[in-house]
Amino acid sequence: MVDVTPEATFQVTHDTEPSETLIAGFSSYGLAGLTAASFVVDELELVETGHVTSDQLPAFAPFENGTPRHHSRLFSREDLDITVLVNDLFIPVWAANGFADEILAWTDENGVEEVTVLSGVPFVHRPGEHDVYYVATTDYQEHRLQDSGLDPVARGYLDGMNASLVNRGIDSTLRTGLLVTPVHERAPDVEASIRLVDTVAALYDVEIDSEPLQAFAREVEEYYRDLAQRLEAVEEQHQPDDRMYM
């Protein structure tokens, strides 16, 4: 039987060595993690220090004010031990392992010790449950979440990029944490993004004022709306029945 599963390859290019901590936001339902990561980059005045390219995925080139840019970019600053990955490119489930393998090979080669993924997930919740929760390896919990006040996600399953990254953390010394918050259909879900930004500020002891995020979201609303439409078209083909999948 011929294997017709598509394959995708990725390559990380960077100008400077990354920090020991990588924070990542990906294109997913509600765009909360992606919006939060973009806002953290702006508020911390990080500069682009690298990017990720891909083969065998549909061509996707974001642009702003007539200037194109890479869809997956790395940002950092010399005096701050944080590198942020802002990933506008939607990574389908079948390509998640390839993307994660490249990112994790890059972290191994460059001394990255911790990966934090920001994510909004459309799981069932009550009105009072608009909080940030975690799914994290035990070493991440011990190192980063002590006295954080965050609660774990009780149960469920991960797939796609989240599963690929967390699985690697289970079997290695790489501390891996997924910060999860309920997300709604609107894109971007600004309130969900604010929760993630505030959590990053608290966990990493950096000063980030999340108030301007409302204005930031309005400025990029049209861009994110178009991106959300792309995601919805793809996710309709891959949406799991159990909403606890992430």
Distance between the termini: 31 Å
Shape: globular
Within the CATH hierarchy, at the fold level, what is the topology?
Answer: Rossmann fold
Compute the number of helices: 7
Beta-sheet strand percentage?
15-25%
- Which segments are poorly predicted (pLDDT under 50) over 5 or more consecutive residues? 240-246
Strand order of the largest sheet: 1-3-6-7-2-8-11-9-10
Q: Please name the CATH architecture.
A: 3-Layer(aba) Sandwich
Q: Cα-atom Rg, whole angstroms?
A: 17 Å
Protein name: Proteasome assembly chaperone family protein
InterPro entries: Proteasome_assmbl_chaperone_2, PSMG2_sf
Describe this structure as you would to a colleague.
- This is Proteasome assembly chaperone family protein.
- It comes from Halogranum amylolyticum.
- InterPro entries: Proteasome_assmbl_chaperone_2, PSMG2_sf.
- It holds the Pfam family PAC2.
- With 246 residues, the protein is α/β, with parallel strands linked by helices.
- It has one domain: PAC-like subunit (Rossmann fold, 3-Layer(aba) Sandwich), CATH 3.40.50.10900.
- The chain is 34% helix and 25% strand.
- The chain contains 7 helices and 11 strands.
- The protein has helices spanning 32-43, 93-109, 138-144, 160-170, 190-204, 213-219, 221-235; strands at 9-14, 21-26, 47-55, 63-64, 67-68, 72-77, 80-87, 114-121, 133-136, 151-152, 175-182.
- Strands 1-3-6-7-2-8-11-9-10 form a 9-stranded mixed beta sheet, sandwiched between helices. Strands 4-5 form a two-stranded antiparallel sheet.
- Strand 6 and strand 7 form a beta hairpin.
- Helix 1 packs across helix 5 (190-204) and helix 2 (93-109) packs parallel to helix 4 (160-170).
- The longest helix has 17 residues, at 93-109.
- The chain is globular.
- The two termini are 31 Å apart.
- 42% of the residues are buried.
- The model is unreliable at 240-246 (pLDDT under 50).
